[in-house]
Amino acid sequence: MNEDTTPMGAGRKQIHTGLEPLEIDVRKSELLANQAPKSQHYKGFAIEPLQYIEANALPFIEGNIIKYVSRWRHKDGLDDLRKAEFYIKRLIEQAEQEAKNG
């Protein structure tokens, strides 16, 4: 999937994925992330995974991979790595299916 972004104006951008354009308000994403309760397992991170996921408009599966890989040492250890593995396998399956269908 090829993605490109188009600036929309003050703090907004449009994401092109080959589907309907997705417009996100980057400022709103940052504001929500700043208001969200801070989790101990993300303490010390430069930014929380949610901020990264939203700022890059990552799909659900990719966002979960980021989340679980980011927190595994500080939260649920191997369980989080297994969850990440589950989502990585799903992403591979989707990519293989897309390649097959052209």
Concise overview:
The chain has helices spanning 26-35, 49-55, 60-71, 78-101, and strands at 4-9, 12-16, 22-25.
Notes on the protein architecture:
- The chain is an alpha+beta fold and 102 residues long.
- The protein has one domain.
- Helix content is 52%, strand content 15%.
- It is built from four helices and three strands.
- Strand 2 and strand 3 form a beta hairpin.
- The protein is flat, with a radius of gyration of 16 Å.
Q: What's the SSE pattern?
A: EEEHHHH
Give the biggest beta sheet. 3 strands, antiparallel
Global geometry = flat
Into which percentage range does the β-strand content fall? 5-15%
Question: What's the alpha carbon Rg, rounded to whole Å?
Answer: 16 Å
Structure annotation, total helices: 4
Number of strands: 3
Poorly predicted regions are 1-6
What order do the strands of the largest sheet run in, or round the barrel if closed? 1-2-3
Helix content: 40-55%
Provide the number of structural domains: 1
Query: Given the helix and strand composition, which structural class is it?
Result: alpha+beta
**Quaternary structure classification:** single chain
- Summed over residues and divided by their number, the pLDDT gives a mean of 79
Separation of the first and last Cα atoms: 11 Å
Characteristics of this structure?
single chain, three-stranded antiparallel beta sheet, alpha+beta, disordered N terminus, 3 strands, 102 residues
